[in-house]
Design goal:
By secondary structure, this protein is of the alpha+beta class. It has one helix and seven strands, in the order H-E-E-E-E-E-E-E.
């Protein structure tokens, strides 16, 4: 004996299929949104880990420099006569770094920083008014150093430091003295990973 389904039963089954499809679609869209958010969070976290090393490496190098050119004191911020920005190897004071802009970031001798492909690193140096805390074109004895990093995925990360003309590095020693002004560190884990570069400025200027 054959049993025949009624029209009502067939209609109910179709509704159930449609509703199930909608539920699956909603769940799928939600899952994709969660996955996209997780990927964005992972990228931001990676950028936040890479940025300090790139910033500290260059900031330590800048802070170890004299406040102004020893041969042309009192000159404007920027490169002095006869200086070029081909590499940083010939920079002899901190404001030579004004406007330095490289993609990808470079070491002092002009080589690309390993593992920093896609990053951009630029420097902005201005005088700072100590009474207002804002930059000014007038010489004040304090310079604001700003390193701005642009990760491959977009956005920017900013690191800032101040440098005074009255610091210990500016005081001439009684006799000729060699001092250590900064320490550079390179760390590599394994044989295939890119090395991590960093630098720090020594405020106590230990004797060499």
């Amino acid at each position: 004996m054959k049993r025949q389904l009624s029209n009502n039963c067939r209609g109910n089954s179709l509704v159930e299929v449609v509703v199930s499809s909608l539920i699956v679609g909603v769940i799928l869209v939600g899952s994709l949104n969660v996955l996209g958010g997780a990927l964005r969070t992972n990228r931001v976290a990676t950028d936040q880990l890479d940025a300090p090393g790139l910033a500290h490496q260059l900031m330590g190098e800048i802070l170890a420099m004299p406040y102004e050119d020893p041969e042309e004191p009192g000159g404007p911020i920027g490169l002095d006569t006869g200086e070029t920005n081909t590499t940083r190897a010939n920079f002899d004071d901190l404001d030579d770094y004004e406007g330095w802009d490289r993609t990808p970031p470079e070491t002092k001798d002009g080589k690309p920083v390993a593992g920093a492909s896609g990053w951009r690193r630029m420097v902005d140096i201005k005088y700072l008014d100590p009474s207002t805390g804002i930059t000014t074109p007038t010489a004040t004895g304090i310079k604001s150093i700003e390193i701005k990093l642009f990760p491959p995925g977009g956005g920017n990360i900013v690191f800032r430091a101040l440098r005074s003309n009255w610091g210990s590095l500016q005081q001439p020693p009684a006799v000729d003295t060699t001092v250590v002004t900064s320490i550079d560190v390179e760390l590599q884990i394994g044989s295939t990973s890119a090395p991590i570069l960093s630098s720090t400025h020594l405020k106590n200027h230990a004797h060499d």
